[in-house]
Amino acid sequence: MVNSGLSSGPNGLCKHTTTQPSSIEEEGFRYGRAQGYIDAMTDKTLIPASPSEDDYVRQVAGAEALPQLPEDDPFALFNAWLTEALGKEPNDANAMSLATVDADGLPDVRMVLLKEADARGFVFYTNVESAKGRELAANPKAALLFHWKSLRRQVRVRGAVSPVSPEEADAYWATRARPAQLGAWASSQSRPLPDRLAFEKKIAEFGLKFGLGKVPRPPHWSGFRVAPQAIEFWRDRPFRLHERLVFSRGESGAWTTHRLFP
Ligand SMILES: Cc1cc2nc3c(=O)[nH]c(=O)nc-3n(C[C@H](O)[C@H](O)[C@H](O)COP(=O)(O)O)c2cc1C
């Protein structure tokens, strides 16, 4: 049974507490992981609590005017926010939700890790035969969402999706740890798995197959780039009077900006 929640820790910061083993922890035990692994992942999580009305009053009283959001280059602004998030988020500041639609137009969403962001777009890597891979093959459009709790900010991205080049995928593949490479060979991502042991057996088989040599990139593993047609920056302001700045890319490729009511 899961019984976890957020409680106020010292300095008004929130600490994730778990009073009973969750099913994830039970899984951890089953596969020989120590409880310390789970504790280490959760104990140092310091996400600020949502401000109360009193906090907002104090913030407004003591606040200096926030600098205007720069409107010249959405990627410069994105990189500045990501850099801040990397310094503040307890983990995976590059995590983003990726929304796609299936053949019936039903939306689907899951987290992936951003591996590259520049003027060409936002890149992530995955199994191209997964549900997301199949959905993107049929309808190469996606939305991304970053939510940085520690900064109380979000970034939304929408645009067309294209595969990265094989050279790009090879270069990123080469940076991955060997167990992750073997996992990519062994995982028929998004397809039914009878039990965990079947996956571990497949990993071991690929380990034997590749021996001590380099593990090549599987043909089913590569990356996608979301080329944004719009990027929205959202930042928290007291009393939920938030700020929203949208960059839209016109036909010429030039960016224009506009603001939205929160
Ligand atoms: C923080 C986080 C990061 C993740 N990053 C990736 C990733 O970069 N690539 C990936 O294929 N799956 C990643 N996953 C797993 C996906 O969320 C998802 O379970 C998996 O890709 C299968 O999705 P699909 O069945 O919709 O294709 C991540 C999960 C989490 C929670």
Structural account:
The chain has 262 residues and is α+β, with helices and mostly antiparallel strands. The protein folds into two domains: 1-49, no CATH class; 71-259, Roll (Pnp Oxidase, Chain A), CATH 2.30.110.10. Helix content is 31%, strand content 33%. The protein has eight helices and twelve strands. The protein has helices at residues 23-30, 35-42, 53-62, 74-88, 131-138, 166-173, 178-186, 196-210; strands at residues 3-8, 13-20, 47-48, 95-101, 107-113, 116-118, 121-127, 141-148, 153-163, 221-235, 243-249, 255-259. The strands form two sheets. Strands 4, 5, 6, 7, 8, 9, 10, 11 and 12 form a nine-stranded antiparallel sheet that branches. The protein has a three-stranded antiparallel sheet with strand order 1-2-3, with no helix packed on it. 18% of the residues are buried. The model is unreliable at 1-34 (pLDDT under 50). Bound molecules: flavin mononucleotide. The site of flavin mononucleotide has 16 residues, from strand 5, strand 7 and helix 5.
What's the quick description here?
The protein is of the alpha+beta class. It contains 8 helices and 12 strands.
Distance between the termini: 38 Å
CATH class of the largest domain: Mainly Beta
Structural class: alpha+beta
Q: Residue share in helices?
A: 25-40%
Uncertain ranges: 1-34
Strand content: 25-35%
Q: What's the tally of helices?
A: 8
Number of domains: 2
Report the biggest beta sheet as strand number plus sense, adding barrel if it closes: 9 strands, antiparallel
Shape: globular
What is the CATH topology assignment of the largest domain? Pnp Oxidase, Chain A
The number of distinct β-strands equals: 12
Bound molecules: flavin mononucleotide
Summarize model confidence as the mean pLDDT: 85
